[in-house]
Amino acid sequence: MTAADLQDAGASLLRAGEGTPDVGFGVYIHWPFCKAKCPYCDFNSHVRHGGVDQEDFAATLAADIATMAERTPGRHVTSIFFGGGTPSLMAPATVETVLAAVSDGWSVAGDAEVTLEANPTSVEAANFIAYRAAGVNRVSVGVQSLDDRALKFLGRQHTAAEALEAVAAARKAFERVSFDLIYARPGHTPEAWQDELNRALDLGPDHISAYQLTIEPETPFFELHRRGALVVPDDDRAADLYGLTHDLCAAAGLAAYEVSNYARPGSESRHNLLYWRYGEYAGIGPGAHSRLVEGGVRVAIDAIRSPEMWRSAVAEGRGGHCNARPLSRAECGDEMLLMGLRLAEGVSLPRLEETGGHAPAQIDIDALVDLGLLRHDRANARISATSKGRLVLNSVIAAL
Ligand SMILES: C[S@@+](CC[C@H](N)C(=O)[O-])C[C@H]1O[C@@H](n2cnc3c(N)ncnc32)[C@H](O)[C@@H]1O
Ligand code: SF4
Fold first, then answer.
1. What are the backbone dihedrals phi and psi of residue 102, each rounded to the nearest 5 degrees, phi first?
2. In testing the pocket of ligand 2, which one of 34, 81, 88, 216 has its CB within 8 Å of the most ligand atoms?
3. Can you give the residue ranges of every domain in the chain?
4. Checking DSSP bridges between strand 289-294 and strand 207-212, what pairing results, if any?
5. pTM score, two decimals?
6. Which tens digits make up the pLDDT trace of 90-138?
């Protein structure tokens, strides 16, 4: 089976669940603390050398969940995602408190996917069994690389051996295990990546996320890159590495169901699918984002980013949110396109029209199809980006 076949198999499997506006309701919980800040990372994550009062933070998250649940009555939770930051620094009791608050606030599907992002240090892996007992049923392990020199360069707090041990411990504790890798690092050759990715795939994952190293503004890597002291692979080399990633994952039975995500059919991240399929979700915790439909209007809500200011706002009954903005239909259409074209299954044109007020012009679709960047499945009224199109996704979206 080629990468394209597998991609298409993944797409048709997923298509069955799409097209229906009800793609579930997700709850995202943000744990904003890390042991150390990685020099490439611009996520809302903070190091607190004095430690974090877990009981207090758990109670604050629970209070914020209760407020959000009051705002969103009648929703049925289909997925919960603990992201960060480093959620594997949460005490298992903290995870338990949060999950109890979610169950108090909403009805939760019996088969809800409950994912926790874990960093692979031995201390954190030691908590896996306790997380499972608390109700987590899927982990995403931040392996990033299986090369110790690369891990050091990325500022990681673990070795490749520890990462392998953490994946093994995760597989003992959970039915579903994913891991993250970062490639297209400085000097990364196709031969080195092939060897590293094959070793990772030999672990038999049912899901992996493989991200190209991105130089984010206001990170230490950004400054090094600006000064020319850090050089990432050029576009041609990055495209080669991307193609290699597709082919090796396909050979291991993992379909590219999203730009950076590969899964055995049926093992896709349901929570992340909900974002890409433009579903409704509640974000809890510092800096978390929500997208809710209120009175027929989609509203974008942001939470206060500073953990301390967020905590005070929730404790004083002001709520953790700093900004709620109704989105125009045009903005919703743009967002749906931006998210949906990341997926192999693409976007339903009738749903896009219903959400955004109008569908892309046929002439623009045809032009992109002629360029080999877009696929138009007329029978199912869907558009999706080709592998070539996904390399220049921003231009495809702009053209539409
Ligand atoms: C915010 S992290 C949270 C998970 C966990 N703290 C960890 O580091 O493993 C989520 C994932 O984003 C990816 N990531 C973050 N910054 C990135 C960047 N600048 N380039 C590529 N991938 C990045 C990493 O693979 C990481 O596992
Ligand atoms: S990559 Fe993960 S561990 Fe590193 S700073 Fe970002 S959130 Fe924290």
1. -65, -45
2. 34
3. 3-275, 346-400
4. unpaired
5. 0.94
6. 999 999 999 999 999 999 999 999 999 999 988 888 999 999 999 999 9
